[in-house]
Amino acid sequence: MFVVFHFILKSRYVLIRNVIFICFENYSLIDTEYRKMIFNYNNTPIYYEVHGQGPVIVLLHGFLESSTMWQPLFATLSGKSKVIAIDLPGFGKSGCVDHTHTMEIMAEVVKSLLNHLAIEKAKIIGHSMGGYVALALIEICNEQVEELILLNSTSREDSEERKTNRNRALKIINKNHVPYVQMAINNLFQENTHEKYFLEIKKLKTEALNFQKEGIIAAIKGMRDRKDRKNVLKNFKGKKTMACGIYDPLLSYEACKIEAFQTNCIFISLDGGHMSMVENIEDVKKICTLS
Fold first, then answer.
1. Would strands 34-41 and 44-51 be described as parallel, antiparallel, or unpaired?
2. What CA–CA distances, in Å, run from 62 to 31, 153, 185, 265?
3. Nearest to residue 288, comparing CAs of 280, 190, 106?
4. What is the dihedral of CA 107, 113, 119, 121, to 10 degrees?
5. What pLDDT is attached to residue 290?
6. Closest among 210, 250, 171, 180 to 90, alpha carbons compared
7. What whole-number distance in Å separates Cα of residue 99 and Cα of residue 97?
8. Which of 73, 153, 174, 196 holds its CA 20 to 30 A away from the CA of 80?
9. What's 32's DSSP letter?
10. Between 25 and 258, whose confidence is greater?
């Protein structure tokens, strides 16, 4: 069934410098538990946070982002759920695991973490690249995913034009990654909203410029080479939702709407662009808590 919705709408701090540490930081946030931790994947540190207790929700961020992008959601979701926000390989506080971070490799990292935490079932929410990883995860461990929400994401592979653009980006980054990062983050927003979201864009740039250049390169290669997973999405039997911005500068809204229909997804239309976590946060909170 194809459905369309329209929304117009510390107490203690501990720091340990060993990369294989497990660090707990506790504070009261609506009486929920909060932990910052490191998972060791093939001798590579993978950072993640755990908020709250209950049914598991796993949050997968997009390209040039980290688990920090989900902060506005933690209080909303952790009241009734265990929320796990991961820094995917090469981003945030996580290390690089390979020269190319394929969606399959990143999905294996997520799967390994879920197994490490003895999580049998989880709701997966992926933004942009995080959605690509979520679909790869469903392909390798479908039984562990009970619900999928794709935010500003698609199951389709890159077009030839998009692959060419990614190859151009790799050449620019090899010379100097700073102008690329600044340009790429600007391009996540509609040009006429840059002034409105000036502080948010500045914050994203500041964080992304601290990411490892190797991690940025590895992710671009992985996104460029990813396969089409339209059938994976179509065949997934759990609840599945696609939420897309009407004015998304990176993904065609109409193409996403057709894709949702063809894959039997619930389709939610957002009055914004590609960065729904910034532009449509109240709508995103509603989407993520729909039962």
1. antiparallel
2. 29, 9, 11, 21
3. 280
4. -10
5. 82
6. 210
7. 7
8. 153
9. B
10. 258
pLDDT per residue as tens digits for the range 143-154 = 999 999 999 999
Give CA–CA dist 90/46, Å, rounded: 9
Strand blocks (E) in 54-109: 56-60, 82-86
* Mean pLDDT within 165-194: 96
Give the Å distances, CA to CA, from 108 to 68, 103, 139, 152, 250: 22, 9, 11, 22, 27
Closest CA to 273 of 157, 102, 179, 152: 152
**Cβ-based neighbour number of residue 271 at 10 Å:** 15
DSSP 34: E
Taking alpha carbons only, the member of 203, 184, 186, 204 closest to residue 194 is: 186
**Amino acid residing at 91:** F
Q: State residue 35's pLDDT score.
A: 77
Which residue is listed with tokens 């946060």?
A: 281
Task: Give me the count of residues in the chain.
Answer: 291
DSSP structure class, residue 29 = B
**DSSP conformation class of 157:** P
> How far is it, in rounded angstroms, from Cα 245 to Cα 270?
5
Give the number of other Cβ atoms within 10 Å of residue 85's Cβ: 26
> Higher confidence at residue 47 or residue 17?
47
Q: Which residue is listed with tokens 């329209």?
A: 6
- Cα–Cα dist 201/196, whole Å: 10
Segment 257-277 mean pLDDT = 97
